[in-house]
User: Fold these one by one.
Assistant:
Number 1:
Amino acid sequence: MPQGMVIKSTGSWYAVAGDDKQVVMCRLRGKFRLEGIRTTNPVAVGDRVVFEMEPGKDTALITNIPPRTNLIIRKATRLSSAAHIIAANLDYVMLVATITQPRTSTGFIDRFLATAEAYHIPAVLVFNKIDLLETREGQEVLNHMSDIYRNAGYPVIHVSAYTGQNIDSLQQFLKDKVVLFSGHSGVGKSALINRLVPGLNLRTGAISDKHQKGKHTTTFAEAIALPDGGWLVDTPGIKEFGLYDLEKETLAQRFPEMRRLMPHCRFANCTHMHEPDCAVKKAVNDGALASSRYQNYLNMMLNDYSNDN
Ligand code: GDP
Ligand code: ZN
């Protein structure tokens, strides 16, 4: 039976790109209960599905959903304990950030990366608008920020959607992968997508129409095919991505460079805040661990996440 990947979900219909690249509109057959979590949507973008064409029609029924390798969820509503699945089976989550116009705070970047760790999904950081950083000072800030995240173990890519600089490296990175694309409004996500997928504007307008109100196109995640193979998952629900699923007991483990140091703390249950002989604090003092990362860890330990910026 044919298989494919869900590229868009709008209520009870799912657009599925078959392994033969044809897109088929599918519905679910019967009821699916998946992985024991209460969800408001049984199938999400990125899900692999097995489907069966309906006799005499060009639509299909989803008959099976193989286990997911990962999924990202958010609470369906503030009061509900049910979850809404934003996307599944991601190879990477990509954060598009900017040093200037607007400046993405390290607090936001670090929460995003820690959340990706909690989901066990590799993360990549893309600094866009490098054309605005051609002064020596701009270069220094960009390199300093990039060093922090490369030292933590994350790939960092510098691009300019405006000049096209390094778009080929980004394309190379994305090739044949399923990558969730996110970042604050104004960092240039639409401009990057238009660079990566020429002609998309003309085809769907879904991305560039985002400022129009009341359009359903922007309330559902959507996978956008890359010309050289691979998918960009665009998710309007991503605002919550950086806020979910972080527990203080395990927060330090969500910082890979801290995770490596923790076995050297004197106390096994060290919180790296006030304990003596803490390998994490020592690394901060020695300059081996970026103080912004440590400070953001402390902020996350001490605050709730309501002051997002
Ligand atoms: P989005 O909200 O993340 O989708 O951001 P947009 O793609 O709408 O871009 C926001 C603004 O930044 C627009 O005015 C773009 O023209 C501008 N912009 C996007 N990419 C770049 C870039 O690489 N360099 C410069 N200088 N401006 C950019
Ligand atoms: Zn410690």
Number 2:
Amino acid sequence: MKATLFIFPIGLLLTNSLKAQETKYPEPAPMRPAMTEYWQPQPKIVTPGKASEKAIEAPSDALVLFDGRDLSQWTNTKGEPAAWTVHDGVFTVKKGTGDIQTKQLFNDFQLHIEWRIPEGIEGTSQARGNSGIFLQGMYEIQILDCYENETYVNGQTGSIYKQTPPLVNAMNKPGEWNTYDIIYTAPTFKKDGTYRTPPRVTLLQNGILLQNNTTILGTTEYIGLPKVKEHGAGPIRLQDHGDPSAPISFRNIWIREL
Ligand code: MG
């Protein structure tokens, strides 16, 4: 009887251990978009200084990505000609035609780009002038009309999307041009595909600091957490977001490789 009592628990242990090997671990619960969004504290509003009407021209060593004439430096994401609309020295998102990206690929760079939310734009939160700039085609710096339009702070203008909110809200009004100056350091990778050094970004909007050498944690996902994916040089990609508000415009885009 004593022997039986002793053996029984061992048998139970063996059975449980076999069951554990047969049973797969449960999948994590699916994430929802709102799980990676937070609304407070809202960054302080800083009114930018008045800019001159004329755009700042590219410096002598920059590669001009758009000079007001054509989209010859750009394609859609399939490598076909970019279908966005060039007019009056600017280009405007043509909704439904997809993102556009530079033909050339980049590592570390300084990028200057100007964008304008159309006057009279309607919509709220993320559905109001949504676009974005994907650094190396991977990491989105958000573009949105955040002039008197609140949204989750890690998705507002100048955020690293769903990661880091901007230090302040430095929006010009719809109808006025905004500038972004972006200084980007590409990541390096270990043999196992994880970051040896993560990507980093500094961002100024209208001359005001929004991101100060901020570490980018991984891809900027709408649903779920950032992912680390090994990659090399990549394009500058501009987002055709598909929100129902009027499309935004861009001008005067140039880049200096570092
Ligand atoms: Mg966006």
